[in-house]
């Protein structure tokens, strides 16, 4: 499922800079979560909690750095980019609702088809589609160095 999702998030829409790679890996990881729910496993809220609590086997090391700010090139494929990237997607979905969230994903892959895109453009699209200011959400879940407290 992860690699299938990369057809759109990573292959068709390519990151502008390496710091934008969370957009690919976060969404491909989130696709795994959506698929697990679809198959009757944990739902995405439960998977989010398992990542937050560290009980999911793939959550190890996710708090090492913010997903949109790997400290150096060698770390762009480290757990925060994947696990915390997926958590950002889940938080956006919670904030904007399912209809707007999936509209954002379809619009993103359509607007940037066979091109490059970056984090600022994704945030702008989320805010534009939802009509909500999402600065705090992205500050806390995407850019914050520390593990966010429960909100
Ligand atoms: Zn991947």
Per CATH, the superfamily is Neutral Protease Domain 2
**What is the makeup of the main sheet?**
2 strands, parallel
Indicate the mean pLDDT.
96
Q: In the CATH hierarchy, what is the class? A: Mainly Alpha
Inertia-based shape:
globular
Poorly predicted runs of 5 or more residues = none
Q: How would you spell out the order of helices and strands?
A: HEHHHHEHH
What does the oligomeric state look like here? single chain
Number of DSSP E strands: 2
Structural write-up:
The chain is mainly alpha-helical and about 150 residues long. The protein has one domain: Neutral Protease Domain 2 (Neutral Protease, domain 2), CATH 1.10.390. The chain contains seven helices and two strands. It has helices spanning about 1-5, 20-40, 45-55, 80-95, 100-110, 120-130, 135-145; strands at about 15, 115. A two-stranded parallel sheet has the order 1-2. The longest helix is centred in the middle third of the chain and has 18 residues, at about 80-95. The termini are far apart. The model has no long low-confidence stretch (mean pLDDT about 95). Zinc ion (ZN) binds near residues 6 and 25. Zinc ion (ZN) binds next to α2.
Secondary-structure blueprint:
Layout lengths: L1 H4 L7 E3 L6 H17 L5 H10 L25 H18 L1 H14 L3 E3 L1 H12 L4 H9 L8
Parallel strand pairs: 1-2
Helix pairs in contact: 2-4, 3-4, 4-5, 4-7, 5-6
Zinc ion binds next to α2.
What keywords describe this structure?
2 strands, 4% strand, mainly alpha, two-stranded parallel ribbon, binds zinc ion, 151 residues, Neutral Protease, domain 2
């Amino acid at each position: 499922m992860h690699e299938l999702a990369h057809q759109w998030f990573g292959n068709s829409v390519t990151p502008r800079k390496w710091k934008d790679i969370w957009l690919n890996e976060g969404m491909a990881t989130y696709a795994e979560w959506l698929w697990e729910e679809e198959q009757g496993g944990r739902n995405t809220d439960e998977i989010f909690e398992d990542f937050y609590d560290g009980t999911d086997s793939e959550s190890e090391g996710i708090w090492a750095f913010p997903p949109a700010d790997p400290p150096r090139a060698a770390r762009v494929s480290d757990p925060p980019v994947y696990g915390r990237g997926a958590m950002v997607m889940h938080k956006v979905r919670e904030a904007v609702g399912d209809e707007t969230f999936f509209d954002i994903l379809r619009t993103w892959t359509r607007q940037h088809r066979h091109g490059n895109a970056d984090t600022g453009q994704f945030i702008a699209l989320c805010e534009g589609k939802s009509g909500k200011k999402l600065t705090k959400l992205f500050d806390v879940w995407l850019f914050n160095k520390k593990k966010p407290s429960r909100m």
